[in-house]
Specification:
- The strands form two sheets. This protein has a six-stranded mixed beta sheet. Strands 3-6-7-5-4 form a five-stranded mixed beta sheet.
- The chain is α+β, with helices and mostly antiparallel strands.
């Protein structure tokens, strides 16, 4: 086995752990559970002018103002109507908290390193940097997201701009 493939195997093994899974447009996604602060039901979101379309606004969560991003819009999907299952996952991005709007939360999965594969390459014009890997658990394929790369510093800045 080459040193490069041994390194890749080690990097994949390090991705093993617990993931909070959620659904967007019928597809299953996962976030490292350690990046999740809490899951809250829908609440009033105050729009902030002159922010990108995917920045829905801010919420007041127990006295703390938290920006909320619609993950569907961030990923270029169609906006969906809110349902009883629509919720906000409050995540840590760097040193701040942000909310991500998702269709519904599924479950917490414990995914072993052997069940995680690298993100496939789709060619030079497709950015997959935000994909941590592809998890296979419970007979399903789950796209594991690196939330720090999904929500970039520019997104965070846009969300908190006055």
């Amino acid at each position: 086995m080459s040193a490069e493939s041994t390194l890749q195997q080690e990097q994949i093994r390090q991705k093993a752990g617990k993931y909070l899974t959620f659904v967007l447009a019928g597809e299953e996604y996962g976030l490292e559970i350690l990046k999740v602060r809490e899951i809250i039901g829908m609440m009033d979101i105050t729009a902030v002018p002159r922010t990108p379309e995917f920045v829905k606004g801010v919420i007041n969560l127990r006295g703390k103002v938290i920006p909320v991003v619609d993950l569907r819009l961030k990923f270029g999907m169609q906006q969906a109507d809110q349902t009883a299952e629509t919720c906000i996952i409050v995540v840590y991005v760097g040193d701040m908290e942000m909310g991500i709007l998702v269709d519904k939360v599924s479950e917490v999965l414990d995914i072993s390193g052997e069940d995680i594969e690298e993100a496939p390459s789709f060619g030079v014009n497709v950015d997959t940097e935000f994909i941590l890997g592809i998890g296979k658990a419970g007979g399903k394929v789950t796209i594991l997201l690196d939330i720090g790369r999904v929500l970039t510093k520019e997104d965070v800045s846009a969300a908190v701009a006055e």
